[in-house]
Amino acid sequence: MNKFKEFCKKQGVVPSFKAYFIDAMGAMALGLFASLLIGTIFTALGLIPGLSFFGKIGAYCGYDPAHKEVYGAAMAVAIAYALKAPPLVMFSAAAVGAAANDLGGAGGPLAVLIIAIIAVELGKLVSKTTKVDILVTPFVTVFSGAGLSLLAASYIGKLVGFVAQFIGWSTEQAPVLMGLIVAVVMGMALTLPISSAAICAALSLTGAGAATNEKGLALAGAAAVAGCCAQMVGFAVMSFKENRFGGLLSQGLGTSMLQMPNIVKRPVIWLPPIIASAIAGPLATTLFDMQMYGAGIFSGMGTCGLLGPVGLILGWTGKGGQTPGVLQWIGLVVICFVLPAAICLALGALMRKLGWIRENDLKLQL
């Protein structure tokens, strides 16, 4: 056993909570940002008349479901980089990530995280141990990763499916309860390594084209937007002291998933955005009567590329659906930006004063 431990250490395989749930998860968020999320921003630019060229670029970054393997590959390579994988292991991880993300469905990113870590560590164990390393290392990495994806990724997706079922149940509840549940759960899903956008698309959280419960789905879509915006805007402003303008933009327009390594280390920092989601969701569905009639995927985007608010606007200005009044336009600004910023700034300041948020607890590793 000691000899095996020494061999693992020699090969750079040293299992630890930090390596797998902080370093790997943090790098995974960067991989997602460098693919799907930058693609989302390109897609948002492509919605501007005359700039459709940007939308085509965004599609190839993984925003188009036909190219979803792209961001799976980017996340897996980023994980391999964080685990200090040799070149052949790192490059082979691309195929592993593509398979895990594709077969994992809405749980694709979570499948990538779990499966890529296993495949990369196995690849590291055989790296440079034979005279035919150029064949053995990619074979072991891809075979173990893609094979495990075929066997297990769909089950990881089913675990995330339970979240989707819970959301589906909540859409049939009273607007206040529904708004609270959908906003909190979808907001947390956006920050976790699962795909909130895929869940919203799968559940069709939009009134557009709904044969039944049209109003309920439209309200649920708006609640999802509120919850996702609360997470992104909330973390962006709350961590401004540590991350300045780079963190403000990367979280506010990119993803709050960048905070997952910090959440794993100190879960209490998640409270302000969750509370902001719980307040914003019911207000969106009751006081402001905000309804989503844009594409369902927009409901799970938050302020990433501003596609959450843009999706609401596109639904309002398109044919059919809700015709917004002044109250809805005010609600758009308040719910998506002003309210989460104010709540998280206030709660963040209080928690710093109480010592619940310490210096650098929100610091990003960009």
Features:
366 residues, mainly alpha, globular
Topology:
Elements: H1 2-10, H2 17-46, H3 52-63, H4 69-82, H5 87-103, H6 108-126, H7 133-170, H8 175-191, H9 196-203, H10 214-238, H11 240-254, H12 260-265, H13 271-285, H14 307-317, H15 326-354
Helix pairs in contact: 2-3, 2-4, 4-5, 4-6, 5-6, 5-7, 6-7, 7-9, 8-10, 8-13, 10-11, 10-13, 10-15, 13-15
Structure description:
- By secondary structure, this protein is mainly α.
- It has two domains: 12-159, no CATH class; 171-354, no CATH class.
- It is built from 15 helices and no strands.
- It has helices at 2-10, 17-46, 52-63, 69-82, 87-103, 108-126, 133-170, 175-191, 196-203, 214-238, 240-254, 260-265, 271-285, 307-317, 326-354.
- Helix 5 (87-103) packs parallel to helix 7.
- The longest helix is centred in the middle third of the chain and has 38 residues, at 133-170.
- It is globular, with a radius of gyration of 21 Å.
- The two termini are 38 Å apart.
- 57% of the residues are buried.
- The model has no long low-confidence stretch (mean pLDDT 91).
Question: Could you provide a short overview of the structure?
Answer:
With 366 residues, the protein is mainly α. It has 2 domains: 12-159, no CATH class; 171-354, no CATH class. The protein is built from 15 helices and no strands.
The number of domains: 2
Mean pLDDT level: 91
> Oligomeric state of the chains?
single chain
Q: Which residues form runs of ≥5 with pLDDT under 50?
A: none
